[in-house]
Amino acid sequence: MERQTNYSFGRIVKQPYAKALPRVREVLAEEGFGILTEIDVRDKFAEKLDVDFRPYMILGACNPALAHRALSSEIGLGVLLPCNVVLWAEGDGETAVMAMDPARAMQMIDNPEVSEVAAEVRERLARALEKL
């Protein structure tokens, strides 16, 4: 099932979180994305707030060649990088997987080269999520 917001796109996959997480890493790698950061929100909430939260992971995905192109066109763009891909456990053994929409995020930057890169990043992220 597809999902979309004003700032992201993704889908619900019929896999439990523990199986979906390695698969998301795999499909991102197939599209040239490495994972620069991982934030296990559930663990952080438990550690810092002593509260229980559903499994929730934020992956900071980056395609180095595309990031280089974008930063070469707009040096301050790093404040919007990397592209976040998030997963969280849904009910009934399903997992939500959502990606930041780079094309939407880059609309605020008036630079056609950056818009071109953002469109390619979005295309690659969408292709990765379609494989799930």
Task: Present the secondary structure layout.
Blueprint: E1 2-4, E2 8-13, H1 17-30, E3 34-40, H2 41-49, E4 56-62, H3 64-73, E5 83-89, E6 95-100, H4 102-105, H5 112-130
Antiparallel strand pairs: 1-2, 2-6, 3-4, 4-5, 5-6
Helix pairs in contact: 1-5, 3-5
| Total helical elements | 5
Q: Gyration radius, to the nearest Å?
A: 15 Å
- Going by helix content, strand content and strand pairing, the class is alpha+beta
Poorly predicted regions: none
Estimate the mean pLDDT confidence. 96
Distance between the termini: 11 Å
CATH architect. name = 2-Layer Sandwich
Core attributes:
132 residues; alpha+beta; TATA-Binding Protein; six-stranded antiparallel beta sheet
What is the structure about, briefly put?
With 132 residues, the chain is an alpha+beta fold.
Describe this structure in words.
The protein has 132 residues and is α+β, with helices and mostly antiparallel strands. The chain has helices at 17-30, 41-49, 64-73, 102-105, 112-130, and strands at 2-4, 8-13, 34-40, 56-62, 83-89, 95-100. It has a 6-stranded antiparallel β-sheet with strand order 1-2-6-5-4-3. A hairpin with a 3-residue loop joins strand 1 and strand 2 (8-13). Helix 1 crosses helix 5 and helix 3 packs antiparallel against helix 5. It is globular, with a radius of gyration of 15 Å. The mean pLDDT is 96.
